[in-house]
Amino acid sequence: MGFNYKRTILIGFAFMSILAFWQFYDQVIPYILENTFGLSTFAANAFMSIDNVLAVFMLPLFGMLSDKTHTRLGKRTPYILYGTICASALLCALAFFERKQSFAGFITALMALLVVMATYRSPAVAYMPDVTEKPLRSKGNAIINLVGYIGGIFATVVMMLMLKTETNADGQKIYTSSFTPVFLVIAAFMLVSVLIMVFTVNENKVLKETNLIDDEQPAETGEKKKLSKPVKTSLFLVLLSVLLWYAAYNAVTTSFSRYCMNVWNVDLGTSSGYLTVATVAAIAAFVPLGFLAGKTGRKSAVLFGIVLMVLGYTAATFIRHETPFMYLIFAIVGIGWASINVNSFPMVVEMCSGSDLGKYTGYYYTFSMAAQIVTPLLSGFLIDRVNIGYNILFPYAVLFSAASFVTICFVRHGDSKPDSKKAIEEHFAAEN
Fold this sequence. Notes:
The chain is built from 14 helices and 4 strands.
């Protein structure tokens, strides 16, 4: 079976919708909480962390539920479709309550929205491996990520065009235009993207056409086979690696703006420029690295990505002043991140049976989200407590990245290898 580019791109529309939302959410919601409703930065950050906390528990749950769902729309599509409809409606409600300056209404709608978003991320991401042969999943994940980032770019462009800013007396940029049109545009984009996917890709039909036989679960008995102990060990080590490299990357992305201000004494625009370079480099590298992994193997591609990130963070450690050389460093980090991101998720789902794809997708995001909960607290604690302050940031990233290199070295399963009877027997042990 060959790789279906058109179908994969269309399936990626669900992820595109999700990333458009989060790009908008991360930029606009904290501003509204602080400036419209007068919350402190700490209180606003507390609300902003709730989505990660919910994700840790809800993503595996709804991934598992989607594994067991069978409807005329398929098993993933109902969660994606109805979740997006609810999310779009709640975005409109947020716009209404923000305009009315109703804090109770806004927070209630916001909490409901975060719960809804957590219900369909795992089903949306699990859709691709459902219909893609195991050796081709790195390529599929590369395309899914590329399509997803288009959603993030769309949200950024919309905010740039529709939200006008001016500088106040304190030298701070403030929004002077209404947020309502942006809420509505993002809601419409999310809904239209998913409707295009639903009307162009019939999940049940695709599953029947692809006919990816789940060798790990014999159809005649319906009995599952358990992961063998070596595979369980590999799975744990991959997930631990996910937590470690997310801890490194998230520490840099969340604290780099303050690093620039405190260490280099430069403005926020400088930090955003470097982070943008990393993002652009990652986007450009997604597809080539996905294709390359098909030849070199996923583990090799992940190790390559970690090495690039370690080199980038190490080089940044020794730079004490703002320099254009940092653009090259962040480009290297972005490429490294792309190589890791494209190949690590397929490694996780490679080790599960087809009937558990949603659940294992949830596991992947649980560990990545856990890192995003822990690392701001841990890195912030170290920045406050050690005598070198923000200079600890890049050594922190080096340490966690290097630790992920060690753990991934001991992974023995999950690489891109063609299915075979021998491989299946090696991966799974029958239940006694």
